Amino acid sequence: MADIVKAYAERAGFKSENFSGHSLRAGFLTSAAEAGAGVLKLVEVSRHRSLDTVRGYVRSAELFKDHAGAGLL
User: Where are the domains of the chain?
Assistant: First the structure.
C-alpha cells in the first residue's frame, strides 16, 4: 500500500517521502471528524480496535474549533 501511495503522490508532483498509507488513513479520519462524523462511524471505516486511538484523530480535528484566538488566526 505504501508503495502505491508514494507512486501516486510522486505522479501528482509531491515529495513521496511525505506520504504513506497511514497519512491517507489519518487524513481521512481527521477530515471526516471535521465534517462531523461520529467516533463510531469512524471506527466502522477505519477498523481500529481502540476507540482511544480514533479519539486522537477527532481531538486533533477539533483543536481550533471555537478557539479563543480564532479571530487572530
Answer: 2-65
Phi-psi bin for 47: left (phi > 0), alpha (psi -120 to 50), beta? left
Q: What share of the chain is helix, strand, coil (3-state, %, to 5)?
A: 65, 0, 35
The x, y and z cell numbers of residue 45, run together, are 471505516
Q: What is the pLDDT of residue 10?
A: 92
Quote the cell numbers at residue 31: 477530515
Grid cell locating 51: 476507540
Q: Is the pTM of this model over 0.90?
A: no
Q: Which pLDDT value is given to residue 61?
A: 63
CA distance 62 to 55: 10
Separation between Cα atoms, residue 51 and residue 1, nearest integer Å:
24
Amino acid letter, 70: A
> Within 10 A of 67 (CB to CB), how many other CB atoms are there?
11
